[in-house]
UniProtKB/TrEMBL annotation:
UniProt name for this protein: C2HC/C3H-type domain-containing protein
UniProt keywords, alphabetically: Metal-binding, Repeat, Zinc, Zinc-finger
Entries under InterPro entries matching the protein: ZC2HC1A/B-like, Znf_C2HC_C3H
Gene Ontology molecular-function annotations: zinc ion binding
PROSITE patterns: ZF_C2HC_C3H (PS52027)
Domain of life: Eukaryota
Residue ranges occupied by any C2HC/C3H-type domain in the UniProt entry: 51-80, 151-180
UniProt keyword Zinc-finger, yes or no: yes
């Protein structure tokens, strides 16, 4: 820092506010590979350098045993041309009828087993979709929909809705609670 009684840091002690960018130095001695011909590459697993041979079709370099496998597939896969699609083969009428058949073909629907109950989420989904259709078709968002059975049971005492199992538990308890005589409320006296 500065003087013995001085608490302010000097210019040398303060960190620099300028951004320091670190640029890595590029090695100057990068070998440039020749356009064609074998390349010597040192492999970490072996001490002897391996020679890479270029593919005659695509120019990529491979080891001798890999080049044999590659060259068999290179021409077949990478340099074969696809057959041209001939539009003349399909007349306009045929193309239109194909498009119409594809659009009107029903999507494959899974067969429903008659004994299974429809899950609640599916009922809710169908109810929402029907409501959306009716509002968009009629143009009135407040149009009444059809009464939908949602599978819930109303409590005769409090008019709340419950599933069948929950209603079996709730209704006897609600009967006792609703028909219980009201108790007198004690007066609160000031202390």
């Amino acid at each position: 820092m500065g003087a013995p009684g001085d608490d302010k840091p000097t210019e040398e002690d303060r960190p620099s506010t300028k951004r320091q960018t670190h640029k890595p130095e590029l090695p100057v001695d990068i070998p440039i590979r020749p356009a064609a011909g074998p390349i010597a590459v040192e492999d970490d697993t072996t001490a002897a350098p391996q020679v890479l041979h270029p593919c005659k079709t695509c120019g990529r370099s491979f080891r001798a045993e890999s080049l044999a496998k590659h060259s068999a597939n290179c021409i077949k896969v990478f340099h074969s041309k696809r057959k041209a699609f001939k539009v003349e083969v399909l007349s306009k009428e045929d193309a239109a009828s194909l498009r119409l058949a594809q659009r009107s073909a029903p999507a494959s629907t899974p067969t429903k087993s008659p004994g299974r109950a429809v899950p609640k989420w599916r009922q809710d989904r169908e109810r929402l979709r029907r409501a959306m259709k009716t509002t968009t078709a009629s143009g009135d968002a407040r149009s009444p929909g059809a009464a939908i059975d949602d599978g819930r049971v109303p409590c005769p005492h409090c008019a709340r809705m419950f599933s069948a199992m929950a209603a079996d538990r709730h209704i006897p308890i609600c009967l006792k609670t609703k028909h219980r005589p009201s108790t007198l409320v004690r007066k609160h006296t000031a202390y």
